[in-house]
Write a structure and sequence with these properties.
This protein has 118 residues and is an all-alpha fold. Helices cover 77% and strands 0% of the residues. The chain is built from three helices and no strands. It starts with 5 loop residues before the first helix and ends in a 9-residue tail after the last helix. The model has no long low-confidence stretch (mean pLDDT 75).
């Protein structure tokens, strides 16, 4: 999804979100039909289904945010260290090393890291 516009990402998730809404609206009726929950309590089953869907969405969202927040700096540090090590090897042009180091520093400090299509 890197490089996708905001609208394209929303479009990719739209079928799943629509399915969750429809399933949560019908959950009470399905539960009452199969006899899991008495008809007078079927609204609670639908509410519980929506609640669980929100909980799962929250957990997945937190996992993604934490993953990006933790793995991003680790990967960036590894990339910089490995590139510096390889560029310091014999035969690597000094100008190339300086240019790449400057580019990495500018990219790290840049306040706007949006991709060109956004």
């Amino acid at each position: 999804m890197v490089g996708y516009s905001d609208y394209r990402i929303a479009g990719e998730f739209l079928p799943m979100a629509t399915g969750m809404v429809v399933a949560s609206l019908l959950a009470g009726r399905w539960a009452a039909r199969v006899g899991v929950v008495p008809a007078e309590h079927s609204g609670r089953a639908a509410s519980a289904t929506r609640h669980r869907a929100r909980e799962i969405g929250s957990v997945v969202g937190v996992a993604v945010v934490v993953g990006v927040a933790v793995l991003g700096p680790l990967l960036n540090g590894q990339l910089a260290a490995r590139l510096s090590g390889r560029l310091a090897a014999p035969g690597a042009p000094a100008a190339f090393h300086d240019g790449l180091s400057t580019a990495l520093l500018v990219a790290r400090l840049s306040p706007d890291r949006r991709s060109p299509d956004q």
